[in-house]
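Hi team,

Below is the intake form for DNA-directed RNA polymerases I, II, and III subunit RPABC3 from Rhodosorus marinus. Please confirm the fields before the structure is written into the shared record.

FORM ID: S-0412
PROTEIN: DNA-directed RNA polymerases I, II, and III subunit RPABC3
ORGANISM: Rhodosorus marinus
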Amino acid sequence: MGDLLVFVDVFELRELDMVPGKDGKKVKSKKFDKVSRLLAQSESYDTEVILDFNSQILPLYEGEKFELALSRSLYRDRDHQGELEATGDVAYFTPKEGDSHLDDYDYVMHGKIFKYAAENGKAIVYISYGGLLMALKGEPRTLRSNTFKVGDNLYLLLKKFSTQSALQGSEGEQPQRAR
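The structure came back. Fields below:
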């Protein structure tokens, strides 16, 4: 994965906008028009993600597959580090074509790790993307505490696969990006 990409896996969306109801059973409920909460299971690392995302920008549906990557930079290599113009907590990114992950992914958010926890033998990384939250839960060997440190900034990169391509991908072919 390299130093800049700290996590990459393909996930299948299991639940969308489900919350616990009064009787304890999950019910479909959406509080915001443009924001959805997904629950997805990874294919390779036995990892689960709960993620708030803008569903108008990236519409996702139950059963669809998508690639989720976490990166320390939008650039693909370390040679471009420091090209961000930063003032305090605000950074301006002007990529050159072909140099950034923006060319490879459909949806990108910048966030900060605010909690790292361990529960029932699993590691959980909590990241806030300007109020949109993510909890990534998996094996401690996959989500290492020395890789995911509280206060670190990470980019979330999502690449949606078309349903037909994702189904073909489960038969051994590489899924293709939806456009």
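SUMMARY LINE: The first strand starts at residue 5 and ends at 16.

Thanks, M.
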